[in-house]
Specification:
single chain, 314 residues, eight-stranded mixed β-sheet, 14% strand
């Protein structure tokens, strides 16, 4: 009996400390990395965005576990000299509100398209990275009247055979997910996130100062961990539904993908996609991993310039 009582007390104390640490870490992350931009309300959902520069409009959509700070490290500054650049936090990530549990790709695309329209950007060029590229593809399918061109960076686009990782299985589970999120937020050090970040960048490394700019603590907030995992768990089924519709995309499309990307494989995703979208242009980036916008930002700028000409925006 004493052993059971002791165990109950230990679990209760650990749970209380975990909840306290999780809340403390979240507050510290938001204090260190407050919203970088402005907010717009779209059908009751608060969307966080930045809006810089003048010219043809380019909308940037970040990937999994991300936020718009990924774009402001390099690309926004380079593009805003010649374009009006809008970058959004996706639903449930960064500082944009959630829309349901595990927001479907089509819902995310419609939300961001409506936000862009409210900002006066009715037919922008859409640039998406990784999961964000899948949202960009959904935008082209769901709102073809609200897009003038599409840039896919290391995008998830076609079905794959590998299963969902144990981490995402746990985090997306209705019961185990919140428990796991509390433990991760409370106890996982940001240094571990830095290590994971370099894994995503491989074979390149994250640029100097990237983690300090990006704000890994924002990714470690409980609601972001859970929403990111739920979106990731539902991704394959949605991609399977979307892929047969890609021939319906008629806007000029540029696809860029590194041949050293081990996160989203070039042969599985971008090579087939370049054959599915009419007149899509594929640029294979030798030796580049999953973060082409950082490995060679000028290549992204050049692709957007080509697309601007192809779409008749210059």
């Amino acid at each position: 009996m004493n052993v059971v009582l002791t165990l109950v007390v230990v679990v209760a104390v650990f749970s209380a400390v975990t909840l306290w640490r999780a809340a403390r870490n979240e507050a510290a992350a938001e204090a260190a990395y407050p919203p970088a931009g402005l907010f717009i309300e779209v059908n009751g959902t608060r969307v966080h965005y930045i809006d810089e520069g003048e010219g043809p409009v380019v909308v940037l959509i970040h990937g999994s576990s991300g936020n718009l700070n990924d774009w402001t490290f390099h690309l926004v500054g380079q593009l805003s000299a010649h374009y009006r650049v809008i970058a959004f936090d996706r639903p449930g990530l960064g500082y944009t509100d959630r829309i349901g549990r595990g927001a479907p790709l089509a819902d995310q695309a419609r939300l961001l398209a409506d936000a862009a329209t409210l900002l006066g950007a009715e037919t922008p060029i859409i640039v998406g990275h990784s999961y964000g590229a899948t949202v960009a593809l959904a935008w082209a399918l769901e709102r073809p009247e609200n897009i003038s061109g599409l840039v896919v960076l290391a995008g998830v686009s076609n079905p794959w055979e590998t299963g969902l990782s144990t981490y995402y299985q746990l985090m997306s589970n209705r019961v185990l997910g919140p428990i796991t999120a509390n433990v991760v937020t409370a106890w996982v050090p940001e240094q571990m996130v830095d290590t994971s970040t370099n894994t995503v960048f491989a074979p390149q490394s994250a640029p100097e100062g990237y983690s300090a700019h990006f704000g890994p603590g924002l990714t470690l907030r409980r609601f972001s961990l859970l929403e990111n995992a739920r979106q990731r768990a539902a991704l394959l089924a949605q991609v399977e539904e979307m892929a047969p519709r890609y021939p319906d995309i008629t806007v000029p499309t540029e696809i860029l993908h590194g041949d050293a990307d081990t996160i989203v494989g070039l042969p599985i995703h971008s090579i087939p996609l370049s054959q599915q979208i009419p007149d899509a242009i594929l640029t294979v980036m030798p030796g580049v991993g999953h973060m082409p916008q950082h490995a060679d930002p000028q290549a992204i700028v050049d692709a957007i310039t080509r697309l601007t000409l192809r779409a008749g925006l210059r």
